[in-house]
Amino acid sequence: MSETSTVDSFERTKDVVDESDPRALIWDLLRGQWRFSALYAFVDLDVAGVLCDGPLTVPELAERLGVDRVALGRLLRTVAALGVVRSEDVAGTRRYRLTPAGESLCADAPGSMRSVSLLQGAPDLLAAMGSLAAAVRDGRSSFAARFGSFYGWLATSPESRKHFDVFMTTRSRAIAEAAVAAVDLSGIGTLADIGGGKGTVLATALRAAPGMRGLLLDLEPVMAGAREFMAAQGLADRCEFVVGDFLQAVPRADAYLLSNIVHNWDDDDALRLLGNIRRELPAHGRVLLLDMLLPEGDAPHLGKEMDMRLLALYDGGRERGEQEYLALLGKAGLSVERVVELPYALSLIEAGRA
User: Fold this and answer.
1) Is 263 a catalytic residue?
2) pLDDT surpasses 60 at 6
3) Half-sphere exposure (CA, 13 Å, Cβ side) for 347?
4) CA distance linking residue 242 with residue 262, whole number of Å
């Protein structure tokens, strides 16, 4: 097995039951929690950050990290089996080095996975996912009841907020480049990014269309970061920053961008948002939506797993099947013109006035 490959399901379960045993799948799912726990410990201790400079022995690593040498050896043995690090014997001395997958856990790696790994292991989020059965039982999120929303929780945890911002900026950059490459921005005077956070997608669009202006609508807590980000991009003079609640109203623009927004809301609130946009949309205006469209049937899809996260963390948030999503747009008075597949299992849905 090469250092770039991952351990497949069979390799992980054949040491428990034969791969033909129907219990093999369940064992693999159960062990997923243990594997993630090992990954989280590895990232939380920033082992990758130390190994980014080159391979080290367990005693050398333990000294630099200030951790127990024996326990660290056990952790490294496990994450080596998962493909995050690999061991090598040099003159009878065993050292560990990062695999390409492990390198993605370094803070400065392109598309770094460090922040999202730390975010997913946050105790409050783990507890929320542990309460999924209760959410299915009564259709309500205990996490949302406690914090109001996922963003309400972020406001209580500055460290998690930092990791979330880093992850979203990294993720949004890849999405933005693909989305902007797929859409014709010519003829748009002002593009309004609704709930756009720092404005990563909007900034990419503004760079691609020098004659276009931007408008960023979001809540007050994110505006300082948005202004700072746009200024760093040299785009602050081309962007208007509007503090507001898009469930109440949106400013007028030639086109609207909603990146991973609709899936946070139930049908009633989603229709309220889309209706606000429809009222302000010019006759030839466009709405650009970035969301997951779930495939029909039992085919695996990231969105189906993300839907469990939304069920646990939000009251009403949900991923939708393609026909369900398009029907929602139709109810809001919008007509879908085309759908383009993007990275991260997302789709670009381009719509206009019905």
Assistant:
1) yes
2) no
3) 22
4) 19
Say how many Å lie between the first and final Cα of the chain, rounded.
54
**Do 216 and 194 meet the contact criterion of CB atoms below 8 Å apart?**
no
Q: Which helix (H) or strand (E) holds 186?
A: none
In the chain, DSSP assigns E strands to 85-90, 93-98, 190-194, 213-218, 239-243, 255-259, 286-291, 293-294, 320-321, 334-341, 347-353
How far apart are alpha carbons 28 and 281 in whole angstroms?
49
Q: Give the list of residues 6+ apart from residue 26 with CB closer than 8 angstroms, or none.
A: none
Rounded to whole angstroms, the Cα distance separating 341 from 354 reads 23
pLDDT at 2 over 60: no
Taking Cα atoms as reference points, which of 99, 85, 8 lies closest to residue 42? 85
| Residue 315 and residue 302 in contact, taking contact as beta carbons nearer than 8 Å | no
pTM: 0.85
- Interval 47-106: pLDDT, tens: 999 999 999 999 999 999 999 999 999 999 999 999 999 999 988 899 999 999 999 999
Provide the 8-state DSSP code for 86: E
Would you say the C-alpha torsion 143, 146, 152, 158 has a positive or negative sign?
negative
Q: 1 pLDDT exceeds 70? A: no
The catalytic residue among 163, 263, 284, 301 is 263
For tokens 């609508």, name the residue: 217
Query: How would you label 25-61 residue by residue, b for 16+ Cβ within 10 Å and e otherwise?
Result: eebbeeeeeebeebbbbbbebbbbbbbbeebbbbeeb
Judge whether residue 297 has pLDDT over 70.
Answer: yes
295 secondary structure, DSSP code: P
Distance CA 285, CA 336 (A): 12
